[in-house]
Write a structure and sequence with these properties.
The structure is a single chain. Helices cover 40% and strands 12% of the residues. The chain is α/β, with parallel strands linked by helices. It has 2 domains: 81 residues; 249 residues, Alpha-Beta Barrel (TIM Barrel), CATH 3.20.20.140. Helix 10 links the parallel strand 4 and strand 5. Helix 6 packs across helix 13. The longest helix is centred in the middle third of the chain and has 18 residues. The N terminus is likely disordered. Bound molecules: zinc ion (ZN) (2 copies).
Length: 362
Amino acid sequence: MMRTPAGRAALSNRALAEALFALADQESPGDRRVDLLKAGYRALDARGPAGREVLGSAPGWLRPLVAQLVACHGEGALTAAVERLGAGRKAGRRPARERFLSRTDVESILASAPEELLPQRMRGAFHWHTRDSDGRGTLEGMARACRRRGASWAVVSDHSRGLEVASGLDREGVLLQRHKVRRWNDTHGEDLLLLQGLEVEILEDGTVDVPRVERNELDLVIAAVHRRLEPGPDQTERLLRAVETPGVRVLAHPRGRLFHRRQGIRARWETVFAACAERGVLVEVNGFPRRQDPDWELTRLASEAGCSFVLASDAHAVAHLEYDAFACAIVARAGVPAGRILNFAQREAVEDWIGNPGAGVW
Ligand SMILES: [Zn+2]
Ligand SMILES: [Zn+2]
């Protein structure tokens, strides 16, 4: 907890955000609820102590309420204020908001993290989207931005056809993109080696939506769940089948959770991660702020199971590429050594690893 010069415990941005979300939970759908949610997200995303920023951007009706929250010193006072403002209703914390980091959490974790886990030490920019599926940037624009940020290799990871909502790539789309990737490597490959990944769909039965012959043509097949994400029946078998699919090299955002919305799927994670470790399938730590999937506890479990990792921004625009810092903070908190994380490897080692599907590590 941060301390003010007077020595009083200042409110963390995460605690302020949680108070705003808890109050939003008590509103029925409408403008007030939306205003509270927006203020909560602003607190999570603030680069310094969030109070003034949240207050300054809040609509008139919300300001006195925010002022009361910001004036609280310590989380006990804050809980009491939320109860008072919520007309005596006890606010239950939603499980879909557990174990997420605010931007200032990320900064403070990285401030004491081992040097070799810092974002500026990453050589590879993994898992970002382009206009070819649901991203906003062009392939070239995103690649140039990766280079500017210091990467020497990068993996474009658009969605496959199975994800209609994200206008995923069909076979022809994948081939067209491959031409663009080759053209980039012919002219800029010395500066930044571009690799073609594809974020394929794990279907309900655990098979993936791209056939083997097409998987073999890709540099990297990344399997992910985007549907049937309710925390209902255990989905271990579904994930095991995906992990054991020939050609799948990465299991992306394994739970499919989304901040405030859903907790994601249930599985016997020790079993899933043991299969990943055994087959050399990397566990992706997704740093997109609303995903943060797996969180640091699940990441620690995967690490104890012997897994190796890859850190992802899941960028859908140039400005999102920095989100891999969230993934750095998650692995730092989980105590994963840099040697088990692909992004810190040299491009030659990554090329070798890609060319050798049986290899567990690079
Ligand atoms: Zn995804
Ligand atoms: Zn993605």
